[in-house]
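[09:14] KT: can someone run the structure on this one? pasting the chain below
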Amino acid sequence: MSNNPLSNKAEGTRKKGSGFALWRVIALFMALYDFIAVCGAYFLALFLRFDGVFSLIPERYLVAYERFILPCAAGSVVLFFLLRMYSSMWRYASFTEFVRTFTGSVISSIAHTVLITACFIRMPLSYYILGAGLQFILLVSIRFAGRFLNILRKRHENQGGDSKNVMLIGAGNAAQMILRDMTRANEINDRVACIIDDDPNKWHRTLDGIPVVGGRDDILSAVEHYKVDKIFLAIPSASMQQKRDILAICSETNCELRQLPGMFQLMLGQVSVSDLKKVSVEDLLGREPIRADMEEVFSFINGKTVMVTGGGGSIGSELCRQIAAHDPRQLIIFDIYENNAYSIQLELKEKYPKLNLVTLIGSVRDSRRMFEVFETYRPQIVYHAAAHKHVPLMEDSPCEAIKNNAIGTYKTAYAAMMHGCERFVLISTDKAVHPTNIMGASKRLCEMIVQSFDRKIKAGRAGDIPQLFTHEGIENADKVGDGKVFENIRTEFVAVRFGNVLGSNGSVIPLFKKQIEKGGPVTVTHPDIIRYFMTIPEAVSLVMLAGTYARGGEIFVLDMGSPVKIDTLARNLIRLSGLKPDVDIKIEYTGLRPGEKLYEEKLMAEEGLQKTDNDLIHVGNPIPFDEEEFLSRLEQLMKAAYSNRETTIRQLVREIVTTYHPEDGGQGAVQKAAG
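[09:31] RB: done, structure tokens below
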């Protein structure tokens, strides 16, 4: 093989040319066949009209046929060419090719009837009818012979040991498209053995020869009877609840599950086996994804300088992606972990080369760094995603939780307030509700901080907010001392509270997957532990909506539907991997970890809920607390944290966050739920 690129290019051109010539040769032979088919069809019609005895055919009919048939056949070939009957790939012939062939044959037969009658002689009626029919049969048979032989070959191959039996759920248009795609795709050896549909009118009937054996209640028995290996869910119009119910039944089998993404492919006629995606554990959560009207959000972001702290994390990076897609004037990624920041920086630069992107490394705990960043870039919108979130780790390092989450939020919020930021959106968690762990308590402190800031600003008393720093004087906001810097502050502070995020760093799903890959066991802390779940895009859309809806002081809450038992989640994930829980993969219960609850709550009971324009997004009424006392104790809390006095820090947090009950361990919530 030559290494010369010009030589390789020439060789490729020759190959391309030979392929191009090959189909032309095939088309030429097809045209020759059509010419012969037209001649033969009408001769055979005349021959059969007179009982198959050539000597009985009157001479006048033979003369008319001989004089007319050659120009007629040539004209038919020209007609077929104009109808593009020679440009199709007949190996994949479909309804379109059938219509073209039928149309060409009908026009040709009508022209034959009119012209031979007008120019020569009126032929027997059976000559016209038989000739037209035979001509169509000869034309269509050669064109669909390849498709037919391919189907027979695939059926023969599918009877071999390598093929898998497939169950289709849904006997509609999508199922029919998948069936046909599997029939003509050479690389697919699987065969559809049966179809399930909840419509009784379709039971005991067939779709393209495949039996519809019953409804969803028959899934388990049909899997066993037909020895099904794979289940394809082909109901793109099904609601999330309907899918959840069907997939819950399917997950009881050991079959591989796949489903269509949605109606879009069906509307475009683009449904194929390749469109089927693996069923993910998100599909079993049992609620519709949040549908946010992002137009308002993106018009709010467009043309503004936006900063995302913790921009390299799971939520932060998704925020950056969605913000970058809608033309901010500048996007600032701020993170202490350079690897994550570098990764999202590369991704955004590649996808949005014109994006004005700034990537900065630093800690939200460093007030001098925060003042420098805000003074230099003057972000108008801040999404504060930087935080320590791992519950057991923060129980072992409570001072770090307070330093990073509470004090870091305070310093970032103060710098934002002093440098003209319009909106400051804190990302909180449902663990801040009746916290039993230091991480949840630290996030409740964050909520109280932004609520205190908002109240002071609205009261025109921003100057009363104490400035916290460990290096006094270097970044003092009021260096002159006349208080004028606190005039005309308009920053609006809000918090966004949601549950566990599927696929995020520290999420239980990646842990379960790793444990399954290793052969188990899968570790669940308690058989009754439940959690609310949402996807990363949902979480991000909620955070961004908060920045748009905000009027200051709100805690936005997503209605995340029903909570999910972690034990059920683990078992479903094992089944989705084609394995049996407690048989192939053991499940071990390790006990609740320090500070861990059995039940998570979205709101404190006394907060209440108010609706927004989105039915799935609510606003919790702020809980009254003495912000004067709260703000006065934060410096003491900061000093205790930086002194690394763990006993003192826990006691101070308990005094400040009155809903923090570390000794509860979630049992109060259990009793409350039981009551």
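[09:33] KT: thanks! Residues 14-156 form one domain.
[09:34] RB: yep, looked fine to me
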